């Protein structure tokens, strides 16, 4: 990953309280796993932003190295990597995701 790509990802992660690197957008997810994350966040009713990794190959590859996580989507809350679709589902079902998002939005 180039320093430019790392800086771009750093900026996106820092500027957005809840951010999802995904295939497609929150209005049109391009894979089932990305859609799962969008549905969960929509259900929580919280503001969030998405980055379409299909539109930027450098981000698509760079985010995997950045988080040391091989798959997409990737969720960041308050600058911290949370995980992907399966982890989001687990956290949502346990109520932890709601708490994490509420804390992030309150800070």
Rg: 13 Å
CATH topology label:
Glutaredoxin
Mean pLDDT: 96
- Total helices: the number is 5
Sheet with most strands: 4 strands, mixed
Estimated structural class: alpha+beta
* Adjacency order of strands in the biggest sheet: 2-1-3-4
Number of strands: 4
Q: Mind telling me the CATH superfamily name?
A: Glutaredoxin
Protein topology:
Layout (H helix, E strand, L loop, with lengths): L2 H13 L2 E5 L9 H13 L4 E4 L4 H11 L6 E4 L2 E4 L1 H10 L1 H11 L1
Parallel strand pairs: 1-2
Antiparallel strand pairs: 1-3, 3-4
Keywords:
5 helices; 16% strand; alpha+beta; Glutaredoxin
Describe the structure concisely.
The protein is α+β, with helices and mostly antiparallel strands and 107 residues long. The protein contains 5 helices and 4 strands; from the N terminus they run H-E-H-E-H-E-E-H-H. The chain is globular, with a radius of gyration of 13 Å.
Folded structure, characterized:
By secondary structure, the chain is of the alpha+beta class. The chain has a single domain (3-106), classed as Glutaredoxin (3-Layer(aba) Sandwich). It contains 5 helices and 4 strands, in the order αβαβαββαα. The protein has helices at 3-15, 32-44, 57-67, 85-94, 96-106; strands at residues 18-22, 49-52, 74-77, 80-83. It has a 4-stranded mixed beta sheet with strand order 2-1-3-4. Helix 2 (32-44) links the parallel strand 1 (18-22) and strand 2 (49-52). It starts with a helix and ends with a helix. 33% of the residues are buried. The model has no long low-confidence stretch (mean pLDDT 96).
